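Predict structure. Chain length: 142.
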Amino acid sequence: MRHEIIIAGLEDIDAAAGRFLQETENSRIIAFYAPMGAGKTTFTSAICRRLGVRDDAVSSPTFSIVNEYRTAEGESIFHFDFYRINKTEEAYDIGFFDYIDSGSLCLIEWPENIEEILPEETLKVRIQVNPLDNSRTVSWED
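Prediction complete.
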């Protein structure tokens, strides 16, 4: 079944993140596919806010590759950015599977760069920019 959420503007992003979390509540590994500037980090930040992570705690892990955040309940969220990964082995070097196997929510940007090692249960989400109005479409299939 195909799911789709339209985000008309930044004022709608928190509500969209809440709906996304409701519709994907059983997914622990979520990979975001989108071009540069489409809003992967912005949407990830909104998801984290909805889970009670301090707004100033969320940032793109472009250089660190992974950031850990804590929800309001003290649960870990791991946020990955594989933009700078050149070889899959680099994901192994950071202990990728330790994070993935932790049972914590894992949010992955630029999963294309580690596609061959993503677990089968990874929820693959697409974010598209709609050129007519700059809205975003978040879509996935289950």
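Summary: The radius of gyration is 14 Å.
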